[in-house]
Amino acid sequence: MPSEGGKEKAGHVKEKRGQSSLQVTSAAPSTDSAIKNTLGITPSKQQAETEMLPSGGKGPAQKKRRMSSFQGAWKMLFDWVMESTHGPKYAFCKVCKSNFTITHGGRNDLQRHMDRDKHKMNSKHAASERKEIGVVTTQAQQTSWALIMAKSEVAFVSLLAEHNLPFTLGDQLLKYIKKYCTDLEVVMKISCGATKAICIAQDVSGPECEEDVATVCRKQPYCIYLDQSTDMKENKLLVILVGYFDQVSGQVVVRFLDMPICATGTGEAIYNCLIETLQRFNISASNMAAYSSDYSEVMVDELDSVLSRLKQLNPDLFSVGSLCHIADLCIKSGVKQMALPVEELIADIHCHFSSNTPQQQKLKEFALFVVTEPPPIIHCARTPWLSLSKIIKRMLDLWPVLLSYFWSFELRSKKVNLITQRLNSHDIKLVFLFLKDAVEPLLTFSAQLQARDIQFISLYSDIIKLVQVYASRLLKPAAAKEFVETVCLNSSCLLKDDNNIMQQIHVGADVATYLNENGNDIAGTAVEHTFYKKVKAFYVAVLLEMKKNLPFGDSLLQNIGSFLDPSLKLQLEITVVENIGTHFGICKSRVDWSQLIDEFAMYQITDFKWPQHQHNNNFETDMCFLKYWSAVLQSPVMEEMPVLKRLILTLLCLPHLNNEPQRAFSVVQNIKTELRPSLNVKTLNSLLAMKMNKDNDCCSMEQT
User: Fold this and answer.
1) Which among 18, 26, 273, 396 is most buried, taking Cβ atoms within 10 Å?
2) In whole angstroms, what is the distance from residue 631 CA to residue 626 CA?
């Protein structure tokens, strides 16, 4: 048994141990343990248990487990968890819609919950629902966009309607919006009101388009197109166009140069306006290879006209004369010689119906009893002689209807009686039937001139065929051949000799049918005799007009056609080239002539590569041979042939059509409308230059 001293010693040691235990328990947790706890890392078993605590100072110490709380950092690791409304010892699962305790495991409790089958199944359902919600949202967005697009399209059409703009404008306007209005900041800063737009047209775009054309005319031969038939308030405007061959595109183009105010319509005033324009653009008159205008005396008279003055300035100037107006001249002259009221009858019927709607309706009612479909009302065209064929055909279709209509009038005026009398006349009906057939060759020739870019390859042969058609309709074969081959105007004596006239003059199938149907009233009467006399007068007048205005006795056109025809390249004689070069002033000296001969010989033996679709020498179409000359002119070899190159460019710019000036006047009328009452001449010039001098899409224009 121990002594008391030993007991005291043992108690002292035990007391120290108790003090030591109290000191350890009250110690602060380590820094590492605090960081791990904050991040939600579950402590180890030793760290989770507390040190031994005294129990009333007696017995062994008891262990106590540390409790976990919800940490905000967990939401970054688990997107489905959030704080629970039950307190910090719980977490809420957004997928399972349930609360669960995290008191003991902390982050491990979250992991165990995520691994459960229930949570996985709920996660799949939630993903499917999110996808369906996304589809619904996308459909709603599409519906919203469709509504917005529909409203914008309706507003766009309303804009066009409000300002009387054509619906075709939408094609270009939408291209502009898609190209330049993709950036909202750019759209917000665009400022182009009326004043700024006028300044851009007058000072930037218009002058640039004019300068592009002037630059070409300074370098290569060009043709001048003139016409003074446009009025703007009290001012008379002279439209000046230039034509030349575009080597890159391979086309003969006609461009707008200027439209100055011409105070008077004299030849001197028009000439002065033209020269001032050429000087302003610094274009040399020596490059003016050809001239084209209407056939008025002011423009083409031999003594006091624009053409006579230009020939004094440039003696080598080429003018095709009245070629493009030959149909109008011949028809007008032929109808005049027939001395029958053809034009008056058409004009009277037109005036009767043009301003009276009830009368038009009454005519349609009469048409229902005569024909199956009511025909259109007759309208007089701005060029009555060139549109005569269409008017005559419509008149003949309406003839029985018109006759019934005018016979039905009870209160008959002098004009109604006159129209009825003429419609009921065999003379007038026979003339209309004759003219329907007689004017067709002329109108076909005119249509070919207007439709094709250039026709000098076949122009001479087309002219000969036209003269042969009308000569063979009137004259006997021998006389017709002599008339075509005789150059001098004395050949008109052939037309005066009745021995040269055919016994059966060509009158057309419709006339022959009408004579057969009405033989009892017409055959052997004065009506038949007078009719054939007037037919002869028509053909004589047409042939004399052709002899006067068509250059079918001039070998120059034939030589030009042979030169421009690529298929005759190797067969062409040097004398043909010499004749052409001399006429156009290309060979003004012996040195130029010798150089042209050498260059042409080099051209004949050189093979030029060009985009030929078929590997043959088929140059029947204009586009085909124009592409050929485009390739020739752009070939590096042609840089060594300057004289020949100038001759080619001269021939390719020669005029034979008059529809381009008319197109310019149409453009003027389209621009100068009631919506632009204050448009001045300067702005009009700029708009014409922008409209006629650019072939590319307006949205692809790049400002330099």
Assistant:
1) 273
2) 9
